[in-house]
Structures are given as C-alpha cells and as structure tokens.
Amino acid sequence: MSATAPPATRRIAANPIPYWARDGRVDKSRAVFEQAFTELAQIGFTAVKADLPEGMRAAEYLDWIGGHGLAPSLSLFNSPFDETVDLAAEIERARRFAADQVALGLDRTMVSSVPLAARQARPAVGAGFDADRLERAIDACGQVCRVLAAEGLRPLHHSHVGGVFETEDEIVKLLEDLGPDVIGFGPDTGHLRWAGIDPVPFIARYADRMGGIHLKDVFADHLTPQARAAGLSYHETSATKRLWAEPGLGVVDLDAVLAAVPASYDGDFMIEVDVPSVATPYASNELSFAWAQRTLVRA
CATH: 3.50.50.60, 3.40.50.300, 3.40.50.410, 3.20.20.150. Which one for 12-298? Predict the structure, then answer.
C-alpha cells in the first residue's frame, strides 16, 4: 500500500469512539481498532479519524487502515489548557502530534479543551467560570495552534462540553481573540446543541473559517432546564443513552446545518456518535451511514 493519503475531499468519515470508549474506560488497543475498521469498512465508510496507536509509525498505520479500504481523516489535539498543564510539555506534544498527522498526509486538525473537573461534574452550564483562567487558556491555546501551524497543520477549534471553551461566550472570545490567522473552526453540532448553542447560525457566523465538522445529533431529554438541574455528570448523562443520537433521530436540524456549510468547504463530513442509542456500535454506524448517503447526496 502507498504511504500517502489523499487530501480531504468531502468524504463520509467516522470517529470510532464507541468502540474504544465504553463504560467510562478507554481501550485503544490494536484489537479494538481492528474490529472498528473491519465494521466501518463493511458498512461503507471510506475514512476514519486518524488516531495513531502509541508506538505505531504513520506508514504502518496507513498500510493497516488502507488494508480495510480506509483513509485517515482529521484528528484532534486535546488539552485542558488550564493551570494543570505544563505548557512547554504541551507544546512539545503538539509538535510530535503534528509530525505524525502530516506524515499521514493530513493538513488540518481539530483542537479541543477537555476535561475540567468542575465541568465534567456539571456539564453544559459553564460551571466554575473564571475570567482569568479563560484568558490564560486562550493564550495557551494560541501558542499550541501556532506550533501546529508551523509544523504544517491548520488548527480548527472543536467545541466540546466539559472544557474551558464550553459556552457560546467562551468559544466566541477564543475565536475572536486569536483570530482567523491563528485558529479556524471545526464545529461539533451535538456539543454545541448540548451547550445551548444553535449550531446553524453559529456555523454561518464562522463559515469562512471552517475546515472540518463533526455531524452529531442529540436527543432532547437532557437539554431542558429541569434536566440540567438534575445534576448528572458528563459521563452519567452520556450513559443514559438518551443524550447522543444517531443523525436524524435527535433534535439537531442537520439539514439546516448542511445548508449553512459554505460551498467552498473542502473537508470531510465526520459522523460521531459517542454512545450509541441502539444495541451495538455496528448498528449505530449502519444507521449513521444510511442517513449520510441519503442526506449528504441531497444536500
């Protein structure tokens, strides 16, 4: 197999997160990914989030997923960007991450901010807001983004409940303070909606900075003020199987989301269902892929 990957060209991609994140545990072993790649390829996906196992070289990874008929799609660099982080170490980690991603043939990456303990305990409400911490986090994120860009990766902010950039005001401040020359935009429709942000106008607002997207749906169950007052943690909410929804089964207006995506968008459409609402990851991905074939072709 060739050790180069095609550029991003609006492929239907998948993040195999429900395979490696189960019951609050992370298992990114080769066997777990092998099952994920086999099943995703059987369903019809052609690209997967580039998640290089520890110690594996890019060429080996490309051969491995290529053997399943899959190509790498944009990945994610994640950091709390808070006082618990050694910034020099994070910058070096970002440099190594970028080298691997560029070796996979990728030119962009999501950048996200999780977890913060207070926001994992009380998700989607901006718990424990601290203006000074937000300023420090924006500065730290900017430094990491500049390193990623210098190594050949375009950084894209990826919204995520449970992190320092959780609410609309926090995300807007990050994007506005750093500006388009430092950070682009890679929204997650489900995380935006859970945080009380309508993804459609938000995507339209930053359409000229968009380089990636996670198409994610959510059920309405945990979006009401009463549900938020119940006090469930991030993981407890996810575990109910009534938060994340397969595309088209929840309340996110994904047709309007796709209409807001600019015609110039050259990235993939990555589908992500963190915790399937159905019995298995395979069944969840079948539903997601069938939706994508119907909806993305129409869009």
Answer: 3.20.20.150
